[in-house]
């Protein structure tokens, strides 16, 4: 008997434990409330539970019910006693009706939901749902009991009050999150609309080092000009090597914070503990090696701009710490308890799919909405191939200034660069220009000086890792006419460059007759060049690596002559 009473007394504690788990395990508030009512029914024999919450207009509505579908209840099938509940919500005083059938406000509702339990009375409990403010809802349940049993109403009332408090805290958190998300989405839509109305006028102060005249880059310039003067957080999206750091610095220069610090941090290069110390600083003695107090990057960039590169690589634990700084503008140093307030404009960058990270739970949704206020997408180089000659000449100019040279590109060399894929984007093009300029002996870089024409360009292997089914390099759109400029030598200037290796003599008829299928053109070219792949490649305007892939694609057997 004693053991039975002990088990019964433990049920409320078990119920509170299960309810707290439910409310903390999902972002679906409707489902969580329905599951809470099921727990009340299962553990405590409470029936016909309901949760009423006020909507934005202040009108009460059923948020969850048990015993019937929520849709039918909202359509009026359930004659729920809203008058009694409104009295509880307006006064904040719980309501207990020991015999609900004798209460005028409840009589009709109890009569309709009478389960036919003879010899038992039905009590009605209703407690307000609130946090620290006025009640914004109510939790109601019914419980049947026998006249012969000794029933203590205070126990159930106390328990339901605790449950209502948990529901109130959870509902308040969901409302705040929804409100913040709606505000951020509204601000983002407003900024996007204003950006679409702006047309960039080149050159733009702060964007001198961001080279490009394509339509894709024009959109980027317009977005930067529109967003830079505001305090909005900016999220730069794009593949690695597209110039996100340059755009971040341009945003800083064009903002009212231009005279304050611009500080950058690569989040992927530091472990979580080191990153926390770098961003927030630490107190003396906070850990081994902390021999003095040190300010973090947030403090150092106060009044200015903080650029967090590779933001998608930070851990889940650190995401929560970063979220607090973005929301409150304050933090504590590592090992300290003093709150530090900062005024920092944040620019983040990533090449990861953050939406997929939010979907699989690796990236916090609330942090995503805080960062993704003004997203700016930087296009890969393959989508703006018309900018390649301009970029190549820009990098060659830098090379000349650094090394005291006066080199220039031939027209054919710029056209060849424009046909390349550049999986590493602008960074790879810069490396290609510097490598070619370093290894070229003359003052004019011709087509045959490029690595891809000498079969020494190893980045072509990235094409096939990205497109495993492809046997040949990706085909780009036809080249746009190459501009002329100081770094582009006129066609006549190419004559002063070292002559390229002469192509093998072929008959007057074109080796790659457009009327022939691709396989026959390959076979014809190989036969005319004595089945030497390098010669056939020059004849067809390909690299030896490309012609090797083409021969494998068409299953052409190499003949030994």
UniProtKB/TrEMBL annotation:
Domain Sigma-54 factor interaction residue range list: 210-438
Stated name of the protein: Nif-specific regulatory protein
GO biological process, one term: nitrogen fixation
UniProt KW DNA-binding keyword: yes
GO molecular function ontology, one term from the record: sequence-specific DNA binding
Quaternary structure annotation from Swiss-Prot or TrEMBL: Interacts with sigma-54.
Region (Disordered): 468-515
PANTHER family on file: PTS-DEPENDENT DIHYDROXYACETONE KINASE OPERON REGULATORY PROTEIN-RELATED, TRANSCRIPTIONAL REGULATORY PROTEIN
Keywords linked to the UniProt accession: Activator, ATP-binding, DNA-binding, Nitrogen fixation, Nucleotide-binding, Transcription, Transcription regulation, Two-component regulatory system
SMART domains, per the entry: AAA (SM00382), GAF (SM00065)
Keyword Transcription recorded: yes
UniProt biased composition (Low complexity): 485-496
Pfam families, sorted: AAA_lid_14, GAF, HTH_8, Sigma54_activat
Organismal lineage: Bacteria, Pseudomonadati, Pseudomonadota, Alphaproteobacteria, Rhodospirillales
Function (record text): Required for activation of most nif operons, which are directly involved in nitrogen fixation.
């Amino acid at each position: 008997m004693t053991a039975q009473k002990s088990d019964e007394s433990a049920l409320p504690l078990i119920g509170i434990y299960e309810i707290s788990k439910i409310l903390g395990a999902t972002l679906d508030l409707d489902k969580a409330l329905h599951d809470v009512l099921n727990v009340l029914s299962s553990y405590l024999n409470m029936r016909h539970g309901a949760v009423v919450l006020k909507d934005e207009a202040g009108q009460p509505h059923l948020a969850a019910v048990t015993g019937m579908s929520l849709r039918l209840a909202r359509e009026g099938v359930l004659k729920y006693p809203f008058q009694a509940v409104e009295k509880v919500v307006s006064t904040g005083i719980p309501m207990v009706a020991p015999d609900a059938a004798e209460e005028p406000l409840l009589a009709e509702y109890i009569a309709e939901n009478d389960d036919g339990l003879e010899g038992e009375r039905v009590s009605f409990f209703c407690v307000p749902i609130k946090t620290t403010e006025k009640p914004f809802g109510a939790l109601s349940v019914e419980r049947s009991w026998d006249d012969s049993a000794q029933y203590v109403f205070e126990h159930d009332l106390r328990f339901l009050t605790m449950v209502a408090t948990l529901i109130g805290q959870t509902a308040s958190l969901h409302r705040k999150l929804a409100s913040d998300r709606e505000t951020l989405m509204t601000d983002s839509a407003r900024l996007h609309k204003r950006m679409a109305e702006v047309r960039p006028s080149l050159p733009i102060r702060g964007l001198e080092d961001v080279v490009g005249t394509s339509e894709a880059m024009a959109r980027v310039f317009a977005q930067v000009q529109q967003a830079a003067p505001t305090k909005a957080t900016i999220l730069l999206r794009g593949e690695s090597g597209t110039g996100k750091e340059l755009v971040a610095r341009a945003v800083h220069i064009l903002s009212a914070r231009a005279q304050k610090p611009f500080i950058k941090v690569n989040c992927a290069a530091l472990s979580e503990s080191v990153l926390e110390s770098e961003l927030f600083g630490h107190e003396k003695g906070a850990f081994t090696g902390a021999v003095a107090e040190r300010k973090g990057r947030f403090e150092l960039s106060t009044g200015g701009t903080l650029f967090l590169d590779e933001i998608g690589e930070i851990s889940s634990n650190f995401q929560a710490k970063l979220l607090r700084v973005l929301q409150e503008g304050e933090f504590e140093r590592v090992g300290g308890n003093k709150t530090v307030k900062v005024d920092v404009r944040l620019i983040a960058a990533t090449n990861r799919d953050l939406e997929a990270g939010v979907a699989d739970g690796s990236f916090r949704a609330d942090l995503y909405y805080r960062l993704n206020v003004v997203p700016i997408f930087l296009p890969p180089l393959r989508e703006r191939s018309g900018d390649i000659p301009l970029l190549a000449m820009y990098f060659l100019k830098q090379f000349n200034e650094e090394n005291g040279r006066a080199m220039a590109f031939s027209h054919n060399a710029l056209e060849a660069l424009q046909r390349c894929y550049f999986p590493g984007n602008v960074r790879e093009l810069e490396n290609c220009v510097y490598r070619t300029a370093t290894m070229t002996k003359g003052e004019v870089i011709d087509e045959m000086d490029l690595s891809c024409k000498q079969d020494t360009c190893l980045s072509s292997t990235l094409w096939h890792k990205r497109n495993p089914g492809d046997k040949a390099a990706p085909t780009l759109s036809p080249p746009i006419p190459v501009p002329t400029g100081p770094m582009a030598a006129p066609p006549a200037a190419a004559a002063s460059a070292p002559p390229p290796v002469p192509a093998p003599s072929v008959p007057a008829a074109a080796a790659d007759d457009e009327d022939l299928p691709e396989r026959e053109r390959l076979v014809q070219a190989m036969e005319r060049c004595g089945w030497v792949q390098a010669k056939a490649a020059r004849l067809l305007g390909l690299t030896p690596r490309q012609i090797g892939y083409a021969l494998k694609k068409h299953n052409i057997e190499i003949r030994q002559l």
